[in-house]
Every structure is written in C-alpha cells, then in structure tokens.
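Dear H.,

Thanks for agreeing to be a second pair of eyes. The structure we're designing against is below in token form, covering all 269 positions.
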C-alpha cells in the first residue's frame, strides 16, 4: 500500500513537471499551500470537522490526475484549473470561510459552474465514444448535446439527493433554508388543490420546542425546498449553455476550437 502511494506521489510530481502541465502546477501548488495553511489553523482552533474538509480537498485535488492516468484521457489545462478552483471555492471558501452565507448567490454561482463542467464531462464521454473506430454508430450533434445535458442534470439531481440524505441522517444543513413571507397551502384549511389558503406578509414565526421558543423575523423557514430548486435551475442553465456550445462545436469544429479547452480528450496512442 505504501509502495503504491509512493509511486502515485512520484508520478504526480512528474506529471506537473511536464512542460504542458506547468501552468496547472502553479495553481495546484498555490491552492495546496493555502489548504494546508487553513488545515493547520483549524487544527489549532480544534475545528476537526474543518480539518476533515481540508483533507478531503487535498484528496479531490488529485482527481483530475487520477482520471487522466486511469482512463487514458487528457484534461485541458483550462478545464483542470477551473476544476481545482471549483473544489477550493466550494470546500475551503464556501464551507470553512462561510462564503455561502457571506457572499450573496455564492452557492448559485458554483451550481451554475457545476452544471457547465458536468455537461463538458458528459459531452466528452459520448464524443470520445462517437469518434472510436470500434463504435460503428455515428450519433448526431443534437443527440450528443442532449446526452451531455442529461448527464449534467443527473449529476445535479444526484447531488441534491446527497444533500437531502445528509441533512436527514446527519442533521447537517446542506440544503440551506430560506426565509419567506408567504404561504400557499391546502393543508391549512383541508381544501382541494385548486383552493389553497394563501397567507402573505408574514412578519415573524415563533417555534416552540422543549419548553423553549425561537422567533424567526421577516417570515418563516422554507426547509430546503427553495434552495434545492434554485440549485437545479442554475444547474440547468449551466448545462444548457454548454450543450448548445457543444452542438455547434460538433457541427463546425474548426470554427469553435475554443470549446476544446473544456473538453477532455482521449490520449493519443
């Protein structure tokens, strides 16, 4: 096990020393250094949950290299840098530095980018298959774009399943709650679906629990539903945007060569 880890570390170092990967190596070293500093700080503060997130981030940083080695594909430098920044932004800035609450729409920005990246990965998978000599069925550009879009949305939905499961089993708050001041529900007066009770301009909500109370100002808490739907909507936008670009790329590859910076490619033999 230690021998394999040593070999993996050696190959990783060789990978980032290669001429075409030096730009990525700069970002990798800088981000890795920042994560290690953050981890040391969290250790001294006794925040071991955040220490785990730092370790997880360092592990996630080597995934692009691992994918290239095992699947024999080439990840463009631009895409690899974006992936590294995405991981850093989600785990270190988002979770540990609390950017999700400090910076408006930070979560939506990342989910939009996730939709775009996942669509790029899905596109590359089907495009590589489509260009393989052993695969005799040639798929149309619209079909490849559609598969790319569906792959991205599936990834987005799977992530929301993960958030829901974590919140229910581990009592986390990955599905961030939203304060709203309007309710429209048939359950408030046992009416049918076409005649809900509508309550607007809710000033505050008081929750009673275990002989204690807590008051929510400016409305009531929507428990994760709005956050989930907003995440899926922006994932949809990111996925749709790349799928459209992918469609035109297949139609006229010479004209849309810039898109190649976001599409993994099968390594040449």
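And this is the sequence the design step returned. I haven't edited it by hand at all.
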């Amino acid at each position: 096990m230690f021998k394999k880890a040593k070999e993996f570390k050696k190959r990783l170092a060789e990978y980032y020393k290669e001429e075409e990967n030096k730009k990525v190596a700069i970002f990798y070293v800088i981000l890795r250094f920042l994560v290690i500093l953050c981890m040391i700080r969290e250790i001294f503060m006794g925040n071991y949950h955040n220490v785990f997130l730092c370790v997880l981030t360092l592990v996630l940083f080597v995934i692009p290299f691992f994918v290239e080695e095992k699947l024999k594909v080439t990840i463009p430098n631009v895409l690899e840098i974006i992936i590294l920044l995405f991981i850093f932004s989600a785990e270190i800035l988002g979770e540990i530095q609390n950017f999700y609450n400090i910076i408006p729409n930070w979560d939506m920005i990342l989910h939009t980018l996730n939709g775009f990246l996942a669509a790029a990965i899905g596109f590359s998978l089907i495009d590589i298959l489509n260009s393989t000599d052993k695969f005799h069925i040639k798929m149309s550009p619209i079909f490849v774009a559609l598969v790319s879009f569906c792959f991205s949305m599936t990834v987005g939905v799977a992530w929301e399943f993960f958030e829901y499961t974590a919140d229910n089993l581990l009592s986390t708050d990955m599905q961030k709650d939203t304060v709203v001041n309007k309710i429209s529900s048939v359950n408030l007066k046992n009416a049918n679906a076409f005649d809900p009770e509508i309550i607007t301009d809710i000033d505050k909500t008081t929750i009673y629990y275990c002989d204690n109370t807590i008051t929510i100002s400016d409305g009531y808490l929507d428990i994760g539903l709005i956050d989930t739907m907003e995440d899926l909507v922006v994932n949809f936008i990111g996925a749709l945007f790349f799928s459209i670009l992918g469609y035109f790329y297949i139609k006229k590859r010479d004209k849309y060569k810039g898109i190649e910076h976001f599409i993994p490619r099968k390594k040449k033999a």
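Two observations from my side: The first helix runs from residue 2 to 17. The chain is about 65% helix and 10% strand.

Warmly,
E.
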